[in-house]
Amino acid sequence: MDHFAAVEWVKNNEAVIKGNIVKYRNFSPYEECDYMQEAFEAAIIATQRVKTKDISFEAAFWKIFRRQISLFTPNPDDSSNGSNSIPSHLCSVDLDTVSIKQRPRKKRKTPNIESIYNAVSHFLTEKERQILYLALGLADEGKLSNYEIAERFGCSVANIRDILGRANRRLKGLVMEGTIDPSRLR
What we know:
Layout: H1 3-12, H2 14-25, H3 32-52, H4 57-72, H5 113-120, H6 126-135, H7 146-153, H8 157-177
Helix pairs in contact: 1-3, 2-3, 3-4, 6-8, 7-8
């Protein structure tokens, strides 16, 4: 059986297919046309399965079709007729009633980027300072991407990336040799 014949088979057996989806429709927000779309897909897959296995088209179709619609049709009461997730049309919008246990988090002191920048900027060249300032988001317009910085300076993104890389390597080297003490910058 080819794909066109499989599609015709689904059209000819539409009433039988719709009769089989009734038990799924009780638990689902999906329309009948959604299930019929799955039937067409299952028929096309079944044509391939028939070629590789020694089974009839109908047997392959029903096995594939039931498996497919069971995967996306919620039915928490019966695992043989749908997935075990909660049907979306039964979900509540009232999120205030949901209580989630949260572990107390350690308050981490976030570093002040501007004060760190001010402490290390004098180790950088003027161009590195300007680009790092924009990349860190210290300007009024907030953090800029490399593309936006390149556009502002009229150069390529690769140039911006190289300058930021040089600035980072320079600062890392100064930290490694002890000139900059990161514990004092917090």
